[in-house]
């Protein structure tokens, strides 16, 4: 089973992802949802601005569809609590990028762009007194880093078994 081969239970424990993390991830996601289309638009503007990124988009007409799948991805990450469908989609998404031969560092650079945006959104929405912005930022970091980690593990399929054997 995919979630077992990705050692999801162990990963969540190692990251310290728990009910509190899910709570703050959900609070954050609901608050920033109205601004997320703006974040996505800036992300694809960045991709299209750079020729090296752009060449991995075979047809600019596909951007509208990618915006929809991209948003669905972040929605699953922040709300699904890593259910089976999330795991299935992480695998499918990583495979889609392997198919277009997107180098890992391009993928990670894209996550960096999203992390900047998510942190900025956290401060915009939660920096006033009474809000626990630190708890929100911690939840964002854990969610984004584990998503990157799972994606990388699919990229490096051959190493997944080795990593989990070493961890036991
Ligand atoms: C934060 C990083 C990224 C995330 C979370 C992400 C997310 C996704 C998702 C959810 C899909 C749909 C997968 C499916 O159909 O099952 C997708 C497809 C795709 N992504 Fe990304 N993406 C990222 C970075 C990039 C970058 C940097 C590029 C190119 C420069 C890119 C190009 C594409 C292309 C071309 C497809 C369509 C592949 C196909 O349908 O054959 N993505 N992405």
Task: Give a summary of the structure in a few sentences.
By secondary structure, the chain is mostly helical. The protein has helices at 2-5, 8-15, 19-49, 51-54, 63-79, 84-99, 104-126, 133-155, 157-167.
Task: Give Rg in angstroms.
Answer: 16 Å
Please indicate the percent range of residues in DSSP E strands (runs of 2 or more). under 5%
CATH architecture: Orthogonal Bundle
Which class of secondary structure composition applies to the elements? Answer: mainly alpha
Bound heterogens, unique: protoporphyrin IX containing FE
Query: How many helices?
Result: 9
Order of helices and strands: HHHHHHHHH
Low-confidence stretches: 158-168
What's the end-to-end separation, in Å? Answer: 18 Å
3D shape: globular
Query: What would the average pLDDT be, to the nearest integer?
Result: 90
CATH domain topology: Globin-like
Major sheet description: none
**Total beta strand runs:** 0
What proportion of the residues is helical, as a percent range?
over 70%
* CATH homologous superfamily grouping: Globins
As for the number of domains, it is 1
CATH class: Mainly Alpha
């Amino acid at each position: 089973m995919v979630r077992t081969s990705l050692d999801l239970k162990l990963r969540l424990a190692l990251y310290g992802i728990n009910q509190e993390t899910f709570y703050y991830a959900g609070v954050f996601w609901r608050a920033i949802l109205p601004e997320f289309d703006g974040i996505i638009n800036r992300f694809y503007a960045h991709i299209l601005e750079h020729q090296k990124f752009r060449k991995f988009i075979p047809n600019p007409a596909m951007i509208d569809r990618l915006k929809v799948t991209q948003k669905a991805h972040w929605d699953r990450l922040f709300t699904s609590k890593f259910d089976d469908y999330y795991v299935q989609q992480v695998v499918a998404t990583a495979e889609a990028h392997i198919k277009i031969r997107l180098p890992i560092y391009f993928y990670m650079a894209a996550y960096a762009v999203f992390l900047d945006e998510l942190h900025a959104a956290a401060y915009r929405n939660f920096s006033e007194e009474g809000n626990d912005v630190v708890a929100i930022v911690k939840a964002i970091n854990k969610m984004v880093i584990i998503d990157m980690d799972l994606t990388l593990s699919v990229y490096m399929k051959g190493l997944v078994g080795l990593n989990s054997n070493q961890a036991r």
